[in-house]
Design a protein that fits this description.
By secondary structure, the protein is α+β, with helices and mostly antiparallel strands. The chain is built from five helices and eight strands. It folds into two domains: 75 residues, Nucleic acid-binding proteins (OB fold (Dihydrolipoamide Acetyltransferase, E2P), Beta Barrel), CATH 2.40.50.140; 148 residues, de novo design (two linked rop proteins). Bound molecules: zinc ion.
């Protein structure tokens, strides 16, 4: 059976002399493992297509194992490998995708592409893309929480806590032992990131330090709710 599908390379391991097993996130079937023959040679035709981040149309022959026979590269996102900060952020995005996509999920596929594209081609400050991506993933998984009212008593929020039990912002009266305080900057920053498109992220400046606080909040929440470990990026 032949499968033709758009896909993103999440990673892979070398096997035999010149082959590679690829962890592929496909639009049609979710995450699958495929092998690519002879791709580690200097002159190999599909050399670029085996690299992490590579987005293309893959033709896969499925028999006893799945073998890639053809790839039309749409974007290799090669520039991500030239900037260490971008590379780590991109790598953390792929790592996140690995933890959430056993099944086909076009929404996550599109979100991943948008994030990689923004990271690769726009001049966006560190952690902005990853924070936006984590927030979208949290929402796609069904845990939307960015609201201006307390998730318990509906009071308008002034001093803000995030409550892990409820997975939402709460007021000082409703906080529990599993709540932690959130700065105004981070609270506002999440709202801004939620409402802005990836390709506009280069036009904003969030309060210094708030991007790290947001990342921490999003990571703790994802781990608490779904057991997802967000990769620490330096
Ligand atoms: Zn309350």
């Amino acid at each position: 059976m032949t499968l033709k599908t758009k896909a993103i390379v999440l990673g892979g391991v070398d096997i035999k002399e010149k082959d590679r097993l690829i962890d592929l996130f496909t639009l049609e079937e979710g995450r699958i493992t495929v092998s690519m023959k002879g791709v580690r040679g200097e002159k190999a035709k599909l050399k670029m297509a085996k690299e992490p981040f590579c987005f293309g149309e893959f033709v896969i022959e499925k028999g006893k194992s799945a073998i890639v026979t053809q790839v039309e590269i749409i974007d290799s996102f090669y520039d991500l490998t030239k900037d260490l900060d971008k590379y780590y952020e991109g790598f953390a995005i792929l790592d996140m995708v690995k933890q959430i996509t056993d099944q086909k999920d076009p929404q996550i596929f599109i979100e991943t592409l948008k994030a990689l594209k923004a990271l690769c081609y726009e001049n966006i400050k560190k952690y902005y893309v990853f924070n936006k991506f984590l927030m979208k993933i949290t929402e796609i998984l069904g845990f939307s929480f960015v609201k201006d009212r307390c998730g318990c008593c509906d009071a308008l929020l002034g001093i803000v806590y995030f409550d892990l039990n409820k997975g939402c912002f709460v007021c000082p009266n409703c906080k529990t032992e599993n709540s932690f305080k959130v700065s105004k900057d981070a609270f506002k920053g999440l709202e801004i990131l939620r409402n802005i498109d990836y390709d506009k992220l280069d036009s904003i400046n969030l309060a210094l330090g708030s991007e790290k606080e947001m990342l921490k909040l999003l990571a703790i929440n994802l781990e608490w709710r779904e057991g997802i470990k967000v990769l620490k990026i330096k």
